[in-house]
């Protein structure tokens, strides 16, 4: 590895650890400080930390790799994500920020569900926390896979070492600083990702002498790469657009809405977040598409298409800048992993340990338990990521669908439909998560094709979850007056 690259990466790691140490004191006061930053996040940090934790390694590795392989037909995923993220800011953020505070100052989503529906059985809280723990542990493993591939393809080091280094640094700053450290590091990482995803396609565009020459080069290699509809079907496009449905149920993203300083800051956060997202996604797609032409012209042998950003960052720039580009990949990976670790830890601490082990534990002990849970989940994620053939995009797609189907309809209806009941909420979680698992892992086929290859599992998952919530809610008794009275205090009620 070049000295300049090594220096850039070392500075990046030191910065991340420094932020963790800087926020250690504030995070150690109580669980609200460690798990939710005391609800004092500003709009810029909220927006970029939500974006960075959302996009993860799939944006700098999975998405460019998909564009490299099949071209513009993958743009529909980005379109669905942009629309979904914008709607998330509009219909979820304001009400969730207010409602989680009104509902017993809820720190986690499972706690909010319990308080929202006045569930004395605690069944809803336990089931929703189990969904978070299972799907997030799998989701976290996608970050470990991305880290392993980065170290293997860029540094010639072992895949396993990449897993340990990537997860190790994340665990350290998450252990030290909790939610505040995660959010501040996400902000820095979001800035790094944004810059890198602009620089790479701009450099290729300059090298080809403009869009016309670049477009002609791609067209000569594969005309289908410039066709929005090549190799896809109507159901395929629906499946890609349906990625946007997942936003309403992603705990690591919407927890930022719970932590923002005030409801008035949400509009500013939306403008910053959506601008960042649109440019970053465009840069990621351009990296894969433009890189397809550049690699062919330069005669570069490409092994794994998901490493196209890594390859380009090393051949297009000085080693010091190349190190900065590799830091962008680590930023994308680590920003999501840290958020997922913290949300999973919060569920294990607040929704499992506090309920079943020690309900009277003091705040200092709860913070220590949270830190132990962070380490435990990280070790399991490393074990799951031991398969070197794992596809980042596939792992993310499955976990994204699981959360989107289990929690998306539940959160939307819980915030906007006062008639929704506890039984309806529980049915929505079980049906949504169960549908995704069946769709992905069952031996059932349609015309000989696996179910997930016909239509993305989030589509049937969200539809059936919504039907279950509405049907079961209407079949039972209306919620008590106390629930409806709280509902009347929400923005726009």
Structure description:
GO terms for molecular function: L-proline transmembrane transporter activity; proline:sodium symporter activity; sodium ion binding. The structure is a single chain. This protein has one domain (3-393): Sodium/glucose cotransporter (Up-down Bundle). The chain is built from 20 helices and two strands. It is mainly α. It is globular. α5 (75-102) runs antiparallel to α12.
What characteristics describe this protein?
Sodium/glucose cotransporter, mainly alpha, two-stranded antiparallel ribbon, single chain, 493 residues
In a nutshell, what does this entry contain?
The protein contains 20 helices and two strands. The chain is mainly alpha-helical and 493 residues long. One of its GO terms (biological process) is proline transport.
DSSP, total strands:
2
What is the CATH homology-level superfamily? Answer: Sodium/glucose cotransporter
Put simply, the count of helices is: 20
C-alpha termini separation: 58 Å
**What is the CATH T-level topology?**
Sodium/glucose cotransporter
Output mean pLDDT. 84
Class by helix and strand content? Answer: mainly alpha
| Main sheet characteristics | 2 strands, antiparallel
Function: Catalyzes the sodium-dependent uptake of extracellular L-proline.
Family: Belongs to the sodium:solute symporter (SSF) (TC 2.A.21) family.
InterPro entries: Na/Glc_symporter_sf, Na/Pro_symporter, Na/solute_symporter, Na/solute_symporter_CS, Sodium:Solute_Symporter
GO molecular function: L-proline transmembrane transporter activity; proline:sodium symporter activity; sodium ion binding
